[in-house]
Amino acid sequence: MIFREEICFRTRLKPIPGLPLPVRRFTSANPFYTVRAGHRHRTERPAIPSAENRRFVLRSRPVRLAGPENFELQRGPVPEIGDGQALVRIEMAALSAWQGMRTKDFKNFIRPFDIGELISCDTFGRVVESRCEALPAGAAAVGRQGWQDYAAVRPEDVSVASDAYTAEEWLTALSSPGQTPYLAFSQKVRPMPGETLVVTSAAGAVGSYAVQLGKLAGARVVGIAGGPEKAAFVRGRLGADAAVDYRAGSFRDDLAAACPDGVNLYFDTVGGPVADAVSERLALGADILLVGRVAANNSAEPERDMANLRHVWSQEATIHSFNRYAYKDLYPLVIGRLGALLRAGRLAMHNQVVDGMERTPAALHDVLSGNHVGKMLVRYSDSGASPI
Hints:
Blueprint: E1 52-58, E2 71-77, E3 86-95, H1 97-101, E4 122-130, E5 140-143, E6 150-153, E7 158-161, H2 167-171, H3 176-187, E8 196-199, H4 205-216, E9 220-225, H5 228-236, E10 242-245, H6 251-258, E11 263-268, H7 272-279, E12 282-290, H8 294-297, H9 310-314, E13 318-321, H10 331-343, E14 351-355, H11 360-369, E15 375-379
Parallel strand pairs: 8-9, 8-11, 9-10, 11-12, 12-13, 14-15
Antiparallel strand pairs: 1-2, 3-4, 3-6, 3-15, 4-5, 5-7
Helix pairs in contact: 3-4, 3-10
C-alpha cells in the first residue's frame, strides 16, 4: 500500500501498515536538500555554449486550442546576473494543459498570460554561473523558468534537486503528474480496496499516475481514454482493470459494463460530456474528485462548464474540489514517497520526449489535442550542454 497515517488524511482515516517512515530531514539523502554553506560563488563569467537566449512569448489568444501561431519566438542575449542570483541553463521543459488554459483570458485558479509575456512551465536545468552561495555552479535546479534557454534566478525561484533522480523523473513522477493524484487521494478521498475508481484522461500525464496509485491502494480501476490505442495502453501498460474509449459510439454502454456495481470514486480532470456519462453510473454515496476542467478550458466558451448534477444529487454523492497548490508544505514528503515507489519499481513513468526548444508550441498543441500518451517533455539542450 502507498499511503501513511503520517499524512493528515481528512476522510476515510485508516492507517496502512508495512511502509517505512518517510524521511523528513532535508539532507543529501532526501530528494530536496539544503546546500551546505561555504560554497564559493563564481565572480567571472564562465564560457556559455550559446551567447543567445531564445524565448517564447504569447502573441495572440486562441479561440480553442493554442498552437504555434499564438506564440512568438524572440532571440536576445543571455541574461546577466547580479549579486544573489544564478544563471540556469534549461535542459528540459514540461508541458501541461494549464499552459494552454492560461493563453485564454478568463478567470481560473491562476491568472492568464499577458500578451508578450514569457510562457511559464516547469523546468529542469543546471546552474552555469553563480553569484549566490545557495545555488553553486553545477547544481541541478527545478522550478518554473518557462520556454527559454537561460534564466536568471534567485534561491526562492528554484529548488536544488538531488542527482539521485533524472530530469524526467523530477518533471513527471516527482512533480505535478505524480503529486496531483497522490495529494488528492491522501488529502481528500482515498481509493479503498475493492471499490471502483474511475479515472478520466487515464492515458495522460496525471491520469496515468492516478491509475497506478489507485491500483497500489487496492481499488478496482477503470480508465477512460480517447481511442482504442490509448485504452489498450491504460489496460496493458498501466494495469487498469478495464479501459473505456470515450470516442466510441458505444461509450455509455461500455462504461456501464465496466462499472456493474457503480462508481465509488471518480477522479475527474476533464468535465464535460464524459463527466455527465460517469454521473449516470455513480454508486450511492459516491465521491467525486474535481481535479481539472480540460473540456471547458479547451472550448470556445471556457467559462461555460455545465454538468448534469441530477445524478450527483440523487445518489447523494459528495464533490471534493482539489488544487495541488494548497498543499505546498507537503511537497517534500510526497516527493520522498513517490521517489521510493519509483525506485522500488512500483510506479512507472510514461513520457513522450521531443527534441528541440523551437518545437515547444507544436508539442503543446499535441498535448491540448490529446495526441500524446503520458507526459510531454521537450529537451532544450543535448548531452554536450548545447542548446537544441
